[in-house]
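Throughout our pipeline, every protein is held as a single compact record rather than as scattered files. Such a record has a labelled line for the sequence and another for the backbone structure tokens. This encoding replaces a full spatial description with a residue-level series of whole-number codes. For reference, a complete record is included directly beneath this paragraph.
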Amino acid sequence: FNPSALLLMTSSYLILYQINCSSVDCGRNIKKTKRCVRWKFGFANEDAINSGSTGRDCCGEEHEVKLVWSITSGKQKLLLDGNQLHYAKLPLAERQKGEISFNCSALGLDFTVNAFAAPPIKYQPDWKQFDLFIN
């Protein structure tokens, strides 16, 4: 199992930081048939940074992004702080690929999710099972 990743972007007016990420198999009858992935991130407090603060003193508004993906039914849902951002149900042909990728927007940011049901057969050094990109 390869842990999730969160790519953090910075600009002249916005600094994001990663708090944590986790993944669990959460199928009702057969655990491995559904994935629940959670990423937590925050916006740094620009006033605290400008005043010379460091570490936890610079933490600002924090959010949670959650992906719920049923591998067997093809249903996928992305939540931001409990509010649905994305929902789709893949057709059978797409489900059999064992991967999903989609984009959505909220909070003035673009979110991109890439997820794979299983690791590749051949080793790939920079491969991640679950990725969340925020831009």
In short: The two ends are 26 Å apart (CA to CA). The beta strands are 5-7, 16-25, 34-44, 59-70, 75-80, 83-89, 99-106, 109-116, 130-134. DSSP finds two helices and nine strands in the chain. The first strand starts at residue 5 and ends at 7.
